[in-house]
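Next comes this protein:
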Amino acid sequence: MILEMKVPSPGESIKEVEIATWLVKNGDYVEKDQAIAEVDSDKATLELPAEASGIITLKAEEGDAVAVGAVVCLIDTAAAKPEGGAPEASEPAKEEVKAVEAPKAAPVAEKTYATQAPSPAARKILEEKNIEPSAIVGTGKGGRITKDDAVNAVPSMGTPTGGNRGTERTKLSMLRRKVAERLVAAKNETAMLTTFNEVDMSAIYAIRDQYKEEFKAKHGLGLGFMSFFTKAVTRALQLYPDVNSMIDGQEKISYDFCDISVAVSGPKGLMVPVMRNAETLSFRGVEAEIKRLALRARDGQITVDEMTGGTFTISNGGVFGSMLSTPIINPPQSGILGMHNVVDRAIVKNGQIVIAPVMYVALSYDHRIIDGRESVGFLVAVKEALENPAEILMGGNVKKALEL
């Protein structure tokens, strides 16, 4: 029996995907539920599992855009599983393979540096341009330099050094193209401004130094910065609800919950999974959820639903060494907090210059819906909570807040 495998719908609004990578070859024997391909949608990269065991025939190439519901491969379920050697397809399968096998492209002659003299017209043009024929790749028969080659030749911008000067052109993935569109739209369609502040991280460092080993031993999780920042952000969003709102046409939508999008780096680029109702999570809950989402993003298992519907975003460029940046809003959200690296800096405390671990933070916001008072007040509230986490975020009882 020949099974037609069709592209499943990754999400309600997605009509087309792109074959990013085939994980099997034409004629391979595949097992049911084995990952046979990675497909890109405009929101995520997903694995395509085999719907049955058998010998596979591919009907799409890597890079092809395929409509949801279209057939991308055939599986001959009657084929016996090979033992060691090449798979033995049943007769129907062999015929099917033959029927759908794409014709081999005619060999393309490799471009080589000219081995014959340029044509008289080409030589005259090259002399006028002061270009040596040996510096030109000829496209004529046997590598001969044609008049067109000479016309299109560009004089060297400097003295040749013998180093490589190759270029490579590759197609952007559907996910990367969608990210690019959204970033440009965010810049063009919002009145985006950024406000900055600095945070003395001494109190957070002291808590982590004192309790991180006990926290890890009890919960199996690291006590990182993200739990402190998430708790500080959800508190500030409740104090300044306009930052937790968004524009829909001529209306403002406000939320009484905080779904925090967290920017993480995955194998296919930046992904932004969402922590639902982050305002209800404990320190342990935040760390566990961030770890779960980061692992799913790293392994390519993140779903469209897990990256949809956030109300505010936290982006941590500090893990890559960024000192300061202006993060771009993640539409349709109205605000994003940028974290940066922590550096020992000279600051003033109680009238004295001291050295302290300091992080610069940035809030980019949509000025159409968030005024300066709300944006600055929000960021100051985040700063206050991070500089006094034991009292503001932990209710004066650090061990209880950390569930130790």
User: Anything to note?
Assistant: Confidence is low (pLDDT under 50) at residues 86-115. Residues 202-219 form the longest helix (18 residues).
